[in-house]
Write a structure and sequence with these properties.
Oligomer: single chain
Distance between the termini: 51 Å
Strand order of the largest sheet: 1-2
Strand content: under 5%
Low-confidence stretches: 1-23
Radius of gyration: 27 Å
Length: about 375
């Protein structure tokens, strides 16, 4: 075969160099590990200043109708808020400079500060559901604006510090602060969201069992609305003691509907949404939103925060009722409309079963929803081939 000179071989036209494909950035919600620490740091300074100002002015934070927080509690919370503000700035600086968050003992201390402060704030949100019901009933500011204002600041702080702590802990473990997976590439690119799904049968059964705890408590209030005598209390006496307040609560009480039962039913609807696919995508009948994905924080924030409060509140009532029935603690004089200690104790026990069941159901459903709806960075799926 004759050899052809190299000079006579026609050259192939070179393909133009491909520009590197630009990764589309996600929305501001998808870039939350970048801005949440700064927002939490600002909150920490503002929260500490407010608490120090209240303490200096002698303003006490109410915990209930006749109970106020000890002075050392707001001072401790203010100190933790300032520490968490510094920890958030440290975490944000590590993320911005690209340095490994887990190198050295300081990041471990930062993780501890963020986790402890976030946990303390979650516990400090105790009473949030009752405040919402009081707001609807028109009795929110009967004891002054300090209590609701402090609770609002606490809820905002918990909502900011929890994701800030989560992002820092993930980064400390060498994982993506946003999706929790170990992958290379950008952490602010597109997110891949799982398809809507319902919880496992075990979770759904557990939620239904927890939800059924409201039956004795709600049944008693429905019985009073129908004119029956329950727990030794007549329907008339109950209506006379429950028609206080203004707005929606008074209007509902006039037609025999208790606003707390209505709120409990709304919590049950939230639990069902957390365990079924329709809680991840707006239904067809929703105007302008039909078929769109439900933002995870929309059902999760009230479910998890309210779940903690209701669980603790229900546990306290259940233990108190058990102590009264067993004679461990002397039963106090019954408050109106109750006329005997047994009826009052049974109502306390049924309330503990109801609120505790709602709280546990919300936490179980919320954890399941969190796992089923967790998004993943698209670059992680391309890397792992998932």
């Amino acid at each position: 075969m004759p050899l052809v000179p190299a000079a006579s071989v026609p050259e192939r036209p070179r393909e133009p160099a491909r520009a590197p494909r630009r990764t589309r950035r996600s929305t501001w919600r998808g870039r939350w590990p970048r801005w949440v620490p700064y927002a939490a740091a600002v909150w920490g300074v503002v929260y500490a200043c407010v608490l120090f100002a209240w303490t200096a002015a002698g303003t006490r934070i109410p915990l209930g109708p006749n109970v106020t927080l000890p002075v050392w509690v707001p001072i401790t919370l203010a100190g933790l808020a300032l520490l968490s503000a510094g920890a958030c700035l440290f975490s944000a600086h590590r993320d911005r400079t690209g340095r490994a968050a887990g190198a050295g003992p300081v990041p471990a201390v930062v993780s501890a500060v963020l986790v402890v402060t976030a946990g303390a704030l979650v516990l400090a949100t105790f009473g949030a559901p009752m405040v919402v019901v009081s707001m609807v009933a028109g009795t929110l500011f009967e004891s002054g604006p300090v209590g609701p204002a402090h609770l609002l600041l606490t809820v905002v702080g918990a909502g900011l510090l929890l994701p800030a702590a989560l992002a820092h802990v993930r980064r400390s473990g060498g994982r993506c602060p946003r999706c929790g997976r170990a992958h290379r590439g950008r952490t602010d690119g597109p997110l891949a969201h799982p398809e809507p799904s319902r919880a496992s049968a075990r979770v759904r059964v557990a939620v239904l069992v927890a939800m059924s705890g409201i039956l004795p408590w709600a049944g008693a209030k429905v019985g009073w609305s129908l004119g029956w005598d329950v727990f030794g209390v007549s329907a008339r006496a109950w209506h006379e003691s429950s028609t206080e307040g203004e707005g929606l609560a008074q209007a509902l009480a006039a037609v025999g509907i208790d606003i707390t039962v209505l709120a409990a039913l709304l919590v049950c609807v939230l639990m069902l949404g957390l365990t079924h696919a329709w809680g991840q995508a707006f239904p067809r009948w929703t105007p302008f939103l039909a078929g769109k994905r439900v933002p995870r924080v929309l059902p999760l924030a009230p479910a998890l925060l309210t779940g903690v409060t209701l669980t603790l509140y229900g546990l306290v009532l259940a233990v108190l009722a058990a102590a009264y029935l067993l004679g461990i603690v002397d039963t106090p004089e019954p408050a109106a409309p109750f006329t005997d200690a047994l009826g009052s104790t049974l109502m306390i026990g049924s309330g503990g079963l109801a609120f505790g069941g709602l709280g546990v159901g919300l936490l179980v459903a919320g954890v399941s929803y969190t796992r089923r709806t967790r998004p993943v960075c698209a670059v992680a799926l391309r890397t792992t081939g998932a």
